[in-house]
Every structure is written in C-alpha cells, then in structure tokens.
From TrEMBL:
Residues 208-261 form the PAC domain. Residues 322-455 form the GGDEF domain. This is Bifunctional diguanylate cyclase/phosphodiesterase. It comes from Roseomonas elaeocarpi. Signal peptide: none annotated. Residues 464-719 form the EAL domain. It comes from the Bacteria. Residues 136-193 form the PAS domain. SUPFAM superfamilies: EAL domain-like, Nucleotide cyclase, PYP-like sensor domain (PAS domain). InterPro entries: Biofilm_reg_signaling, EAL_dom, EAL_sf, GGDEF_dom, Nucleotide_cyclase, PAC, PAS, PAS-assoc_C. CDD domains: EAL, GGDEF, PAS. PANTHER family: BIOFILM ARCHITECTURE MAINTENANCE PROTEIN MBAA, DIGUANYLATE CYCLASE DGCP.
Amino acid sequence: MTDEGAGDGLSGLVTSLPQLVFGCRGSGERTWPSPQWAVFTGLPAARSLAFGWLAALHPDDRRATVDAWAGAATTGEYVVEHRIRRASDDTYRWHQTRAVPLQGPPLTLPGGTVEWVGASVDVEDLYRLRLEVAQAEEQLRTLVEGVPQLLWRSCDMGNWTWASPQWLNFTGQTQEETHGRGWLNVVHPEDREATMAAWSVARPHGNLDVEFRVRRADDGAYLWHRTRSMPVRDGQGRIVEWLGTTTDVQDLKELQEQQQTLLVQLQNRTHDLAGEIRERQGVEARLRHAAEHDDLTGLCSRSFLLDRLELVLSRQDNRALPRCAVLFLDLDRFKLVNDSLGHQAGDLLLVEVGKRLRACLGPQDTVARFGGDEFALLVEGVGHPDAAVTLAGRIIKVLQRPVRLEQREVFTSCSIGIVHVDHNHPVAEAVLRDADIAMYHAKRQGSGGYAVFSPAMRDNAVEALELGTDLRNAISRGEFRLHYQPIYDTAAGTVTGVEALVRWQHPQRGLVSPAAFIALAEESGLIREIGHWVLREACTQLRAWCDAFPGLNLYLNVNTSGAELRDPAYVAHVREALSAMQLDPGKLQIEVTESIFLQHAQLVGGVLSSIRALGVRVALDDFGTGYSSLSYLDRYQVDTIKIDRSFVAGMPARPKAIAIVRAVVELGHAIGIGVVAEGVEEDAELQVLREVGCNCVQGYLLGRPLPASDITGLLAAQVGTAPR
C-alpha cells in the first residue's frame, strides 16, 4: 500500500536543504522529487516522475545521465555530473548528482516505489573553478616550456623530482634519469663536488646560487650554466621543496674571461704611461687608415677621395682652365672572372689593377676603390684637358696587359668616364655623378674605351630615366601599337607574310621608334612583358586576317630577344597564344638574331628546339652581321635566314655584295632553308635579288611598316575581295 505519510515526512525533512533531493527506482525512474526540484527547474512534480525529469537536463547530457544508471547497480553508487536548467533565468548550471540504494525496505509513495535516494548539488562555481585551474595549469605549462631556462624541482639536497623539457632536450636525459641525483651525470666531473657543496651551504640559508658546466647532447660540449633556487616553505616555515632555474651563461663566462684578460693586460701596462699613449696613438692611426683606405687593395676609400675632392673644389679658381679631373673606371666583364675562377681570383685581379693604377699617377694624385670593380682617380695639376684623355688611354693600355691568376693568363679591360672639374660642379658628389654617367656612356660604346663628360650626357641620362619610368607604365596604359611590314614573293609580287614591329604611342613624345626604347626595355627587364604582349596581339591580328581572307596563305614573323628565350615560361606563352587564337603553328615564325647565341647558347638552342617541336618556324635575322653564322646554321634548327640590309643597300654597284648574297641564297636552297632579303629600297636592288634567285624580300620600296588596318586593305586588294 501507499505510504503517503512517508512522502510527507520526506518533504518536511528536505525542504530546508539546498540540494535537489529525489527518490527513484534502480533504473533511474523518479518516483518522488523534492519541492526544491520543482522550484529550481520549474518542472512540476507530476511531470518529473519516471523519466520526465530528464526534460530539465541539457540535451547533450541526457544520454550519459541515463547510461550511468546501468553501472550503478554493480557499484552500489550513482555519480554523474550534468547541467540542469534553472527556471528563474533559463540558464543551465552544472550539478553533481549522487544516489545510493535506500537502506531497509523500499518506500511506496504516490509516485511509485522509492528504491534509491539521491541529491543534485549545484557545482557550477566549482566547475568554473576547475576550468580556470585547468587553464592556469595549461598557461603555466606553456610558460614553463617556452622559457629558455632549464627548470627543475628538488625535494632536498639536490635530489630532483622533476626537470623541464628544456633540460631533457639540452642534455638528452629522460625524466627518470634526472631524478634523485641522476642529473649530476651530465655535470662536468670537475664541478660536481663544488655543486653539491653549494647545496649544503644553501640548506640553512634557503638560497642556492652556483655555476657549473652541463654537457650538451648535440655535440658533447660542456657549457657553463648558472643555477639559482628558492625554497618552497610550508606554514611552519619549513622547506618542503626547491624550485630552480639553470641558465646558459657560456657567453657571459667567455666575456668575463675576455674582460679579465683585458684587465690583466691593462694592469701590466699601467707602469708605462708613455707606452700606453704611443700604443693608443698607433691604434688611432690604424683606425684612421682603415677608414680612409680599402682593406683589399690598400687604395684610398670613397670617403677619403670625396674629402680630397671637396678640398680641391674649395681651392679651384673658376676663371682658370680646369686644374683637376676625375676618372671613373669600371672593369669590363669582371663578373666573368668571379664566376669562372672564384672570388679569390677576382680579389687578386683587383689588387693587381690597384697597383697598375697607382703606377700611372703622380704623387699628388689620388686613386680610390669605390667597391666591387669600380675605381676613381683624382688627377690634380691638369694643365690641359687633353692630359686627362692621355692618361685614360695610358691606363687602358696598362690594364690590357695579361694578369697571371691561378696558373692562368687573364686579360681584362676597362671603361673610363672623364670629368674636368669646373664651376659647374659645386660639390664632389656632382663630379662623381657626371664621371659615372660618362663611364656608362663609354661602356655602351664597347669595352676598353673612354668618354669625356658633356652636359648632353647628363640630359640623356635624365631623359633615359624619365623614358624608363614612362616605359614601365606603357603596357598598363595601352600605349604600345603594332605595325606590320609586308614580305613579298619576288616571283608573284604578292604578300606572303608580315613582320610585326612594335611602336610606342607616347602621350607627349608621339610615336616612339623601337630604337629609342628596346635597349632600355632589355636593361630594365621589361622586354619580356613587352614581347609577351606583342606575341598575343600579333597572333590575334593574324587570326583576324585568316578569318577575313580564308584563301590567303599568310605567315607572321615576330621578333624575340635573348631575354625572352631565357624565360622558362616563353615556350608556354607561344603555345598559349597559338591555342587561344586556334592558329596553325606553321603560320608563326619567331625571328632571332645571331647575338643570342653568344650567351647561354645551350639553353637558347634547347628553347628553339622546343619552339620548332610545336610546329613554329625559326628565322635567323640580320644574317651575316654576327659571329660564326655558318656554324649556327649547322648547329641549330633554323627555317629561314634574313639577309641584312648592309649587303642589299647599293648592291647593283657592289659586285662583292652580289656574290655574297648569291652565295647565301644558293646555300639556303641547298640546305632547305628559306631566304628573305631585308631593306630593299630601290628597283635595281629588287631586280638583282630576283636574278640571284632570292624568293622573298621586304623593304621600304615594297611597303613600309603599316597599321593593321592598312595591311587589311593591302590584302583585300591582292585577293580582289573585301574582307569578311
């Protein structure tokens, strides 16, 4: 029968308790909830019976809560932590719920039989505290593992109980090997006794500070470390353990030893003040010499020459002829020596150059090394401007004599820029700037020469700088244009191909010829980007002509530089341009000059082979003006040779030129290579080319480079139909 009095008794007993008390069966089905449960959860007693009480639990915790009852029967105790919803603010709070079997016979209540009794205790604050402690422990662990010092714990007299990962990584010991006094095994044998003595001293005072050497696992070297420790005391002030750090002080020890050595040296010299002063003066003299001279060659430094030049400028009589000159010198192809023989050989060459330059100058003159392979000479007492030119010629000859480097004879040359110092140079830097400009002007004329500065050179340098800046923006601004020069069949008199020629439509300068910017583009590295644009644009136009005149067999020539061929992506660019326009590869011909084979010949040859593997043809431009032309025809795969205009111009009156052109044409026919004559400007030249059997020509006589629209009209007139 139902024991209603027992239920009322339980309610009265637990009403004052903060816990959420309950009675349940062994399966977890609740048969009696306390009033606090209904108040806390907002769940009426009737709805909390059986497993209805689970509605007050967080959904993520319900399964684990029910599953825990399965093991309770075996253990005799039910313990679980879960979140219970608090009705007052609709939040879930962590509780620990415990239940045990009821002592004595089960109680029968209106809600069912009570076999187990339990209570849920709010542990939210404890749970948060645990979380904070765990976070703090994680932060402490991260801190301990992150500090550079080697950390440890000891119970007493050096008996370690724990060592940080840093100690283990440094020494190679395991955690177990460090325990007790096992850590002493990696301490230098000579330091162990003193280390343990330090523990004995620290015991009554509570502070440990000792230095000893620790063996590093990586190389077995012993490095000095300083160990410090403070004791941890209990409530009665007794030492319960030691926490300590071991810090690498090897550098400090070495510094201390150096300082001690210096101190001894200073102490040994204090008896002779005069000697110390003389030594100091000697040091100062050496430092001054080092600041004013180049370490390698012993020549003056840049700063010394600038100071000397400023002094000369301050004394210069503006009304007189220039009384001094500056020669700026740069060795030609010096990088080749470094790359082939090594930097040591390069240094020996620089030393020898310095000696020869000194021998060319008078005692009042100054020679300085400016770094790398650059030198500057300040020549004073110049009676006439020609004196500096004469000196430059003598230097060039002197440096052309061979230099013996590592059992090899090396020949070098130089480029020299000459500036006569006058009232146009207010400061030394202005003189060096103009000398540098003149030197680069000389270098552009070819190695082994000199150039005398003129204001026009500076204007050209400024203009080149401005032009280079504009050139970098030309592609993004869409300022490049393509003109096309027709290539004619001499027999039929029809256009069989066109050569794409880039032009620059500058917003202020107008149409700029390639001669004015191609060299600048190659120096700045922009030639690759420009070449890529030309290739895409020309292929797009060829596609348009193929669509407009489907019966016309027209091929396209595109000029390519050595820098483009050395670009690893060049072959892919060609392939992409052909694919994008769906062009027959045989309609595209890449023009190269003989000069590309002078450097990286093997690389360039491989690229040309890859291009021909696509079906694209290769033409050798300016044929006959370079080096070893015939060997190139034998070594590399070429489809066409283009005879340079220097052989075509005035050819009717030049029997030797006619013979050369005839030989080239016959050679082309013999080895299956097409021949095109460039620069045809007179009818007589065209007639001779026909007579010697040259099948294709181009030049101003037949057609100047024209915009694509004009070429379209020319092709339309040739086929007799309007373009589609």
